[in-house]
Amino acid sequence: MAQMYFYYSAMNAGKSTTLLQSSFNYRERGMTPIIFTAAIDDRFGKGKVSSRIGLQEDAELFNSTDDLYQTLIQISAAGKIDCVLIDESQFLTKDQVYQLTEVVDKLDIPVLCYGLRTDFLGELFEGSRYLLSWADKLVELKTICHCGRKANMVIRQDAKGNAIAGGNQVEIGGNDLYVSVCRAHYKEALGL
Ligand SMILES: Nc1ncnc2c1ncn2[C@@H]1O[C@H](COP(=O)(O)OP(=O)(O)O)[C@@H](O)[C@H]1O
Ligand SMILES: Cc1cn([C@H]2C[C@H](O)[C@@H](COP(=O)(O)O)O2)c(=O)[nH]c1=O
Ligand SMILES: [Zn+2]
């Protein structure tokens, strides 16, 4: 039986790197993985998954209105898929997480999702909420704060490096805008 996995972390913990390593592992065994990433996250060019250590692969794009079950039925009709890898899975909708459970349960294809658990305010993303609820396996990937503790929060910074305490949940960016920290340093930065 296939399973659904959710690999979650703060930013810069190696999620994209781990996804690309999984893809490589499937390919070196003669299998066919398919990679998806969010259309809205175009930091490294649309249709690409890149890790900060230099690995890169082409990816299909998902938008919030896509039916991923139907998309994967169509793609698998054209050739066998052995695994579905989804980067930026925090941007999935509730419906799309459900559709991916159908891919696992009805098409018997493993689905491996990689994404943030929470946003810069410490709130769950919609995709993450339902992945945490419905995935078979939850795997935390870890990165560290400047103090050496595990970084499980993400600060959004302004141009002066001050922590931002409000705004839209989605703002695409990298090290220019975000820094992963431990909970104690998150509270300190926000004056909580
Ligand atoms: N295999 C690895 N060995 C050592 N450091 C790694 C490895 N993979 C990732 N990293 C570190 O993690 C950082 C973030 O990698 P990335 O995959 O882009 O993270 P994420 O997708 O979680 O934001 C890299 O800049 C690097 O410092
Ligand atoms: C914390 C936070 C992040 N985002 C965006 C910023 C990036 O584009 C992605 C995460 O990238 P990763 O390095 O692959 O983990 O998500 C956001 O929109 N809102 C937030 O609060
Ligand atoms: Zn810290």
From TrEMBL:
Single biological process term from Gene Ontology:
DNA biosynthetic process
Query: Zinc: present as a keyword of the record?
Result: yes
E.C. number(s) listed in UniProt: 2.7.1.21
An MF annotation (GO) of this entry: zinc ion binding
Position of the signal peptide: none
Query: An example Gene Ontology cellular component term from the record?
Result: cytosol
- Catalytic activity entry: thymidine + ATP = dTMP + ADP + H(+)
User: Keywords for this entry?
Assistant: ATP-binding, Cytoplasm, DNA synthesis, Kinase, Metal-binding, Nucleotide-binding, Transferase, Zinc
Q: Which InterPro entries match?
A: P-loop_NTPase (IPR027417), Thymidine_kinase (IPR001267), Thymidine_kinase_CS (IPR020633)
Q: Which residues bind ATP?
A: S9, A10, M11, N12, A13, G14, K15, S16, D87, E88, S89, Q90
Q: Where does Zn(2+) bind?
A: C145, C147, C182, H185
UniProt-listed Pfam families: TK
- Which Gene3D superfamilies does this entry report, sorted A to Z? 3.30.60.20, P-loop containing nucleotide triphosphate hydrolases
Active site per UniProt: E88
Residues bound to substrate are V170, E171, I172, G173, Y178
Compartments annotated for it: namely: Cytoplasm
Q: What is its main location?
A: cytoplasm
- Lineage, top-rank taxon, reads Bacteria
**Assembly, per entry:** Homotetramer.
In terms of PANTHER family, this protein maps to: THYMIDINE KINASE, THYMIDINE KINASE, CYTOSOLIC
What family is this protein classified in? Belongs to the thymidine kinase family.
- Read off the NCBIfam families from this record: PRK04296.1-5 (NF003300)
This chain's protein is named: Thymidine kinase
Name the source organism.
Answer: Photobacterium phosphoreum
